[in-house]
Amino acid sequence: MDLGTIIGLFLVTILLTGAMMMGVGVQAYIDFPSLLITVGGSIGALLIAFKLENMKNIFKYLGIAFKPHQYNIPALIKTIVEYAIKARRDGILSLEQNVNQEENDFLRKGLSMAVDGSEPDSIRDLLEIDMEQSLGRHNSNADIFDTWAALAGSYGMLGTLVGLVAMLMNMSDPSSIGPAMAVALITTFYGSLIGNVIGSPIANILRIRAQDEALMKLLVIEGIISIQAGDNPRVLETKLLSFLPPSQRFSQFD
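and the corresponding structure tokens:
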């Protein structure tokens, strides 16, 4: 689990709940008409804006935000360099057994094409298409939460207008002013809550996860092309280590 995401959500929840309890209490912020307008309305609009198959996987995308796939880039570099050493010593066909045992799907796909003798340009083109399409899909998933944040804010304002109209039309009845004002104010609160606690933060972390995957795939592409070209393993390692921050650049040849 990603501790930063979990701690952040926990912290926001505790702080907001604590602030409410120190004021008028949490109960005062629960209003079902406001929930129907803001939550129900924004989700309905999302169903219009996105394909149903994407919406059905929304909890899967939430899971990625809290429990992402971990890429051990230093270990991946070590593996690729070991493949380069073996290929340079015994020939690239010697990696055929490694292809079948490789757990990284993207690396296995690239190695398989290299062992089969595909042209370097073809390997690069196919792997880059895979990377770009995957990145596009992940960004589209993040767009759902970005759009939800925007829609929730808009429906919060819509609820405010609904509450104000109801209040103004019943000014002669003092007992109706309070509930109408509650809808007017709390819908904006719900819209802001969805947008700033769920929508925008989740969209941002999903894009970061997508960039992490893209970095891994770009590193693999460079590694595969270098292995096929017969580059010196030390040179290859130096190239791949440049993908890491300086503090993490440790050579296995040292």
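(Above: one complete record from the training split.) The chain is about 80% helix and 0% strand.
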